[in-house]
Predict the structure of non-specific serine/threonine protein kinase.
Amino acid sequence: MNTLGLSMILKMGCICTKEHLNINGIKYVVLERLGEGGFSCVDLVENTTTKKKYALKRITCHSIEDQKTAMQEINYYKKLRHPNIIELVDSTFKGSADIVVHATSEAFLVLPYYKRGTLHDYLTLRSFNKNYLDAKDILRIFSEVCEALKFLHDFTPESIAHRDLKTANICLTEHADPILMDLGSCAPAKVQICGAQDAQKLQDLAAERCSMTYRAPELFHVESYCVIDQRVDIWSLGCVLYAMMYFKSPYDIIYERGDSVNLAVISGTVHFPQEAPFSEDIHDLVRYCLVVNPSERPFIDAVIEKTKEVKNKIETIV
């Protein structure tokens, strides 16, 4: 085979490997895979006309129930409009999951692309040299995350809980403003549990959808008769604040050690490094969120007020 022929085959091969998609009349080319989860994957795509880049979330649906869950996520994106919550650019379904064996559909969600990635990515990079964030920057980012949660928790006609708040679900803009993403775990905040069957169902859903090292204690062992509310997010918020100081959730450290996250969470014990460069006031803010008994845990308004107090103290010292 001559060089020209080989060159043509290689070029054709390159063209074939790039997937092209048409979403509601807009053409996109897939550039690379950004990440994969248990229920979906995210690709970096480019609008072939404007050359603008987006994050494309693809959810494979194996049943009608999966389709309903994906549609629910899309609906949450559409109605939850806030500067610190990711917006939905476009969406569509392809195919149809039904009772036919092996029939699947796919949901496509076009979302903004943030070059800086997630808060988790940013903290991982800084962790290599133990390059701690400044306390003022931590509290600024934390305050904005709190405002996004307040919007969810105060939403009418029904309060909404995120239920999977973690550093990997917070993107950062070019100016390091946090953007809450992945609304697939969102649900009505208040859940009345009436019996063992209800309890087991929610516990299984939490194990499936809520990351273990950020999961509230009441979701590890759901009581047969109780009310679960938006304060599951306050626990996760405390873990996020800890991670912004020490690069990981306090329970990531437990998990990596091979110890029981379940037992550690239920005990409510939080260890702060001795060489900590942060004031006890910020540690107290973490403890304020990480209250094991959900009925004693604060609501988001109280956390916002407490955060303002800590910010004022730090600014006064500086």
Notes: The chain has a mean pLDDT of 91. Residues 135-153 form the longest helix (19 residues).
